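hey so u asked for the seq, here:
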Amino acid sequence: MPSSATDTAVGSTGSSGTSWSDVTSSESSLRRFLHGLPGVDQVGANARAAALGTRSIKTTAKAQALDLAIRMVDLTTLEGQDTPGKVRALAAKAMRPDPTDPTCPATAAVCVYPDLVPVAVEALGDSGVHVAAVATAFPAGRAAMDVKLADTRAAVAAGAAEIDMVIDRGAFLAGRYQLVHDEIVAVKEACRRPDGTSAHLKVILETGELATYDNVRRASWLAMTAGGDFIKTSPGKVSPAATLPVTMIMLEAVRDYRAATGEIIGVKPAGGIRTTKDAIKYLVTVQEVAGPEWMDPDLFRFGASSLLNDLLLQRQKMATGRYSGPDYVTND
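ran it, structure tokens below
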């Protein structure tokens, strides 16, 4: 969608018009703003995403894209059978994804449940790989607010640099936008450390449950106005998780939010991105929709577990000229 279509709705909330505090001051004003955003042309969005997905890159550009995609991976384990040993192994892989090739870059982060944050922090040390923790009763988010905040504070106190929270989709779908907004604000505050710094907050929209592209756009803007540092598609626990059209709509939202406010918000698709071909489609979409500034791990991440192995196999093929089998990479 051209940026001018969104400018009509958000121009009044930019630097020359109504303040964001006025927009979010009441349920009625927040509803008025969110429902004033331009509707998404579903057919057009699907067509544009499909067209972007046909782009291909070759040789040097592909090699650069592979390394960038590896640097953007949040290497994730979020299973009931997770153990300290598994987290340590994942941390080792995040720091040295390909032990046979020291030129292979590290991943962006390791993402774990809050109780395993201390294990990840110790294993990663000063490597520069961040520790991310899911919080707020992930993945359903069905818990009392004091429980969600305690979950967040515990993860931050244990050393998590990033918090992935889930919004209350039931409240959002019921039109209780102020409640969702205020919960994000409260979790953002719970991300603050005693020294005044703050863990980065990724707000998971669970786009697969939002039903419409219009809701994806509204939820994206709601999360950004509430203080989220990233907006994220999904916990990866339900289908559909990340899709290219949904991610494109979220990229449009962060682009337009920057035009309205000057603030830059990141995007994280998660769930279902498994191949190098998929990752390159997303990188092309980032470049074409949001712009080159988002082609950076600080502003775009892949929430993935199996993706990294395929990136490594493709990287090995470009280096050696032949395909390696799955035995040449470690299991996550």
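The two ends are 38 Å apart (CA to CA). Residues 1-9, 11-18 have pLDDT under 50 and may be disordered.
lmk if thats what u needed
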